[in-house]
Amino acid sequence: MSEHRLAEVFVELADTLVADFDLIDFLHRLTVRCAGLLDVAAAGLLLADQRGALRVVAASTEETRLLEVLQLQTDEGPCPECFHTGQPVTVVDLADAADQWPRFVTEAHRIGFASVHALPMRLRTEVVGALNLFDTRPGRLSPRTIQLGQALADVATIGLLQARTISQSSMLAEQLQAALNSRVIIEQAKGVIAERHQIDMEQAFLRLRATARAGSRRLSDLSRAIVDGSELV
C-alpha cells in the first residue's frame, strides 16, 4: 500500500474525533478500510454493551456479520477470546481449530475463510471490543500487517473514548449502548428494504448507507423513518 493512501485513511478516521459523527457508519468504514489496507478478505468488529456482553456492530460484508453473530450465540471463536483476554488471537489454519470451535469453523469454511486474526480494541487496561480479520488463505499475517491492524483498532478505540467522555465512564457506556441499539433498528430497516426491492441484505445496507450519506443523515435516523413507514428508499 502507498504511504499516501495509508495517511488518507488515518486522517479520515481521525477526523471523526473532532466533530459530531455517525458512530455506526464510522465503525463500518473502519472494517471496510481494514479489509482493503491489510489485504484480507473481510473484517468484523464487536463491542461490549453496558453489561459487558459483546455485540456485533460492524462488518465489511453481510456474511461476515452473520459469522460474528454466530460467535456470540455459541461463545465460539477468536473474537470473544480476544475480548476476554485482552490479547491478540491468531488462528493460522481454521481446520486446526475445528475441535475447539466446531460450529464457528464449519460456518467460516462455508463462507471460504481459512484463517483469522483477532485484535483487541483496548486503551491502557480497558478493553471495549475486538476486531476480527478474516482471510481465505491459511497462514500468519506479517508483523507489519498486524501492527497496522492494531493501529487501526487503536484509532477506533480512541474514537470511542473521546476526550469529552473519557473521564465520565457512564457517558461512554451510554454512547456505546446508543450505537448498539441503533444497530437493531438498522437491521430492521435493511430487512424492509431487502423485502421491498427483492435484494439481499448486503445490497440493502449499501442502499441505506448511500441514501443516508447523500442526505447527510444518521443511519439510525433514516432507519427509524423507513421502519415506521414515513420514508422510502
UniProtKB/TrEMBL annotation:
InterPro entries: ANTAR, CheY-like_superfamily, GAF, GAF-like_dom_sf, GAF_ANTAR, WH-like_DNA-bd_sf
A Pfam family recorded for this sequence: ANTAR
SUPFAM superfamilies per record: CheY-like, GAF domain-like
Any GO molecular function: RNA binding
SMART domains linked to this entry: ANTAR (SM01012), GAF (SM00065)
Domain of life: Bacteria
PROSITE patterns in alphabetical order: ANTAR
UniProt KW Transcription regulation keyword: yes
Residue intervals of the ANTAR domain: 166-227
Keywords: Kinase, Transcription, Transcription regulation, Transferase
Protein name: Transcriptional regulator
Native source organism of the sequence: Pilimelia terevasa
